[in-house]
């Protein structure tokens, strides 16, 4: 055999040996601060967040995930559509070469749907991340409470963070940096945040969120039609009650400053409580109607989308 042939064979063996020892994507990825957000005990879903660093010189991606505290696991992100934040499922999460990718509230995250048990503070939950080469990395994400909003901003948000961040006193934030809480509305209110507070924050406005996220929830045209019909029947009544509460509470402030007697103020205050009770009852009826129109999986997804909006 010629010397050149021997060299070629040796070189080929060396390349094959190096390829066999090449790191998988899972080995080239570093995970930090993984956690699962705590939700109320009856909540059917939650989300997992973390920071992923791709230490490789090539772009990679997370193509799927698996949680062990739940039945369905999906990769999700948030998009801003005409000033409204909506959650969308994605096929993969891109990991640019040499960069850090944050999975965080209001952005990319891993949805854990149909929980088998409540998430507990400090408890660790196993999650498997699968990458485009088929390799898998298992992490332990710690249960963590939702961080209370600071100055009206969402958890983890900072003033001035993101492009196009705008704030108007008494108004609604829009643009890529918009505050997510301002979008929790039924799509009919001129001032969603204030009106939702008047509606009673203990009960969510679900119909508008469901319709706006119809694609993500896999709603049929018939389901959307039924939801819109419910809104058409009850929406104007709800809107009027919101406005009445708003007007009554403003009047109460003025009357209190004007020195009106306590008995008269309390009598007027009782009217606001009666209106809030009607609003709460109607919203519970809305939820019950929603559970009739949506199947169990769709409602579970809706319940997981709502806190993320």
TrEMBL record:
InterPro entries recorded: LpqE-like, Lxx211020-like, PCuAC_sf
Keywords: Signal
Residues in the signal sequence: 1-22
Statement: the UniProt record of this protein carries the keyword Signal: yes
Stated name of the protein: Copper chaperone PCu(A)C
Source species: Thiomicrorhabdus xiamenensis
């Amino acid at each position: 055999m010629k010397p050149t042939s021997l060299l070629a064979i040796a070189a080929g063996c060396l390349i094959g040996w190096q390829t066999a020892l090449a790191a998988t994507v899972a080995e080239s990825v570093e995970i930090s601060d993984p956690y699962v957000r705590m939700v109320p005990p009856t909540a059917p879903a939650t989300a997992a967040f973390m920071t992923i660093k791709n230490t490789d010189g090539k772009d990679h991606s997370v193509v799927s995930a698996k949680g062990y505290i739940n039945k369905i696991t999906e990769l999700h992100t948030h998009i801003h559509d005409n000033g409204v934040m909506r959650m969308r499922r994605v096929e993969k999460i891109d990991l640019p070469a040499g960069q850090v990718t944050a999975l965080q509230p209001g952005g990319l995250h891993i949805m854990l749907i149909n929980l088998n048990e409540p998430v507990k503070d400090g408890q660790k939950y196993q999650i498997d991340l699968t990458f485009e080469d088929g390799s898998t990395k298992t992490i332990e994400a710690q249960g963590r409470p939702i961080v209370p909003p600071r100055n009206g901003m969402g958890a983890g948000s900072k003033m001035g963070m993101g492009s196009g961040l705008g704030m108007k006193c008494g108004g609604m934030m829009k643009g890529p940096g918009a505050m997510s809480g301002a979008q929790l509305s039924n799509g009919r209110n001129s001032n969603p945040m204030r009106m939702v507070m008047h509606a009673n924050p203990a009960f969510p406005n679900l119909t508008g969120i469901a319709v706006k996220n119809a694609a993500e929830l896999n709603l049929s045209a018939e389901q959307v039609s039924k939801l819109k019909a419910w809104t058409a029947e009850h929406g104007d009544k709800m809107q009027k009650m919101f406005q009445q509460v708003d007007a009554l509470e403003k009047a109460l402030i003025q009357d209190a400053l004007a020195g009106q007697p306590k008995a008269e103020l309390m009598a007027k205050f009782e009217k606001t409580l009666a209106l809030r009770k009607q609003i709460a009852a109607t919203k519970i009826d809305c939820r019950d109607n929603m559970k009739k129109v949506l199947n169990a999986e769709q409602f579970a997804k809706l319940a997981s989308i709502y806190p993320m909006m």
